[in-house]
Write a structure and sequence with these properties.
Blueprint: H1 4-16, H2 26-33, H3 48-55, H4 59-66, E1 87-90, E2 94-97, E3 105-113, E4 119-123, E5 131-135, E6 142-143, E7 148-155, E8 163-171, E9 176-183, E10 194-196, E11 200-201, E12 206-213, E13 220-226, E14 230-233, E15 236-239, E16 244-251, E17 257-267, E18 272-282, E19 286-288, E20 310-312, E21 318-321, H5 328-358, H6 364-381, E22 400-403
Length: about 400
Amino acid sequence: MLNQEEIVRQQNFEKSSRISIERHDTMKLIPLFLRDLSLNSHSLQVKPSVYLREMLLSTDERLEQLVKPLQKQQGNTPFLAEDHKDFRVMPPVVIFQSFTPGKQYNATFTVRNTSESSKFLSLDIKPNKLFSVTYLSKVCTRLAPGISLHFLVKFSPQSEQDCGYIVSLATENQPVRVPVLGLGPRPLVNFPDFVDLKQTLVKVPCSKSFYVKNIGQVPAAFSMMCEKPFSVTPEKIILDVGKIAMITIHFEADVVDDYFRHMTVRFETGEEMSVELTSSSKNGKIWLDTSEVYFEDTYMGLTKQKKVTLYNDSEVTIKFSWLKFGTAQEDLNELNKLKEGFKFVKVNETLRCNKLEYNDVIHENDHARVYSRICNDETQLLSTKDLLFSNTNFEIFPMEGVLWP
């Protein structure tokens, strides 16, 4: 008959040995794959080549990599065997990947007694339809100092979905738990690590296009986000297996500088890759033949004209417009003021809704959706065209246009 302590140990063992079918967080596994657990999975920037390399490894290649030295942070880490005062597990996690349903895969792990005295260690696990664990070396219940026991894990996948298991080994104190993970196929798209756009003039856009292909086994749905002054089209793509899509990176700078930014590729399943973007901007040889225009006294009701010539001695075609303000920062400040004005309009509409609802014209929620959509649309449509030069006494023609080299 089992005593109370043995019953609790048995309950803990059964709880820890259940099969998990939840999808494993790939971004939390990447630091483990790179053998550096000090990396923060939330701010980790993974190059596409690194991501593809790690996801395309076979089970044997992954296990060979897992036995390499690991730079570990303080405390226990997800997906790794918990630190134990008497035993050391190597590798600290068993991972099966790139597997095919219906086939059997084998992996081994070792448990070594790191204490200075003999310790009790026993494998008491019931086989299940996916995983089974057996001794590889001679079975013994007590392990001498410095001696290791070898175990064989057999994995028989029935589908390509993620799965997990905890191998629990009973000891005199806390059990030794060894995580076993099965990684199903991940979305794989062959993005470049680096995209370099040619140097361009300030406020003159340039772009570069490239093709990507879904080289994985599952459809890939992903979005792309660039740090300014870069942008990307399209921003969202769903790519079936083997299909190709064209991506275009755009660049337009407001000031002269060298730019180093990143584009984040985020899959719907949570994986992320980071593509480096570089470009630079310079001032072009574009000038006016005068910095001021002086008009002589003019009779009321009559007009006078002066001609100003704009020269383009650069190598690109430019677009020009006459604006109210002298710098891009002043333009931006004015646009922000206009956007703030739309917020006040939104507040006024909220107050106006009380009267409309009282007269049974429209419900509060419906009215909120209408004016919120209108305000958002108007805010997005704001551009420098709303800041074109305007004066009651002066007029410029043409107000905007295109100037060839």
